[in-house]
Amino acid sequence: MQLNIKFRVDLGQSERDQLDALLSGGRHATRKIKRAQILVAANDGLSDEAIAATLKVSGSTIYRTKRRFVEANLEGALSEEPRPGVARKLSSKEEALLVATACSKPPPGRARWTLELLADEMVRLEVWFSILQGQSLSGASFTSLKQLEQHIDAYIKAYNDKAEPFVWTKKKVRQRRFKGRRITQL
After folding, report:
1. What is the rounded distance in angstroms from the CA atom of residue 47 to the CA atom of residue 53?
2. What does each C-alpha distance from 66 to 91, 126, 131 come to in angstroms?
3. Where are the domains of the chain?
4. Which of 70, 80, 82, 102 could be joined to 7 by an S-S link, Cβ 3.0–4.6 Å?
């Protein structure tokens, strides 16, 4: 990272008003507030060292924020960049479902949710929603939430009336030799 390049922050009046509104109240992410404070301080002429000491942020944070403002725009400077590392395993909808499940009453006979129970429940719910979507909701349109709820309730009743337990089956496993090694073949 080249920290020897200096980026100059020159806020327009509308950008300054946006930042002042953001900093004056409301609930915002801490990182977003810090970035706004960096931009305001840089616009007011404070040095990077003074900004770092005042806001308790690193020089690289100041550099990145100023660079993103100059190269992109105010929104680009305030927003989150994708973080390095492993990609998210759950979408935001799946994460919301997991949190809602973990906050719900645990299964009968259990005092609390365990990771294994949550994983099993997530699989069960995903399969159920997939079946519901494929067999009932696909292509349907509803004019109200009540109409959707009635449709789902009717589907559940019809589904439960004809439901049968699923039986897992396994093929016979045979072993054979391949180049002197045993391999399992289904």
Report:
1. 10
2. 31, 43, 49
3. 13-78, 100-162
4. 70
pLDDT in tens, 52-110: 999 999 999 999 999 999 998 899 899 887 778 888 788 888 888 889 999 999 999 99
Which of these, 7, 83, 90, lies nearest to 42 by C-alpha position? 7
Question: Which tokens go with 181?
Answer: 């090694």
Q: Which two tokens stand for residue 86?
A: 């492993």
Tokens of 48: 């990077």
- Measured CA to CA, the distance from residue 26 to residue 15 in angstroms comes to 18
Residue 109 backbone phi and psi in degrees, to 5: 85, 0
Do the beta carbons of residue 11 and residue 39 sit within 8 Å? Answer: yes
Give whole-number Cα distances, 11 to 8, 56, 84, 105, 150, in Å.
Answer: 10, 22, 30, 51, 53
Q: For the chain, how many residues are written? A: 186
The pTM (predicted TM-score) of the whole model is 0.48
Which tokens is 12 given? 């327009």
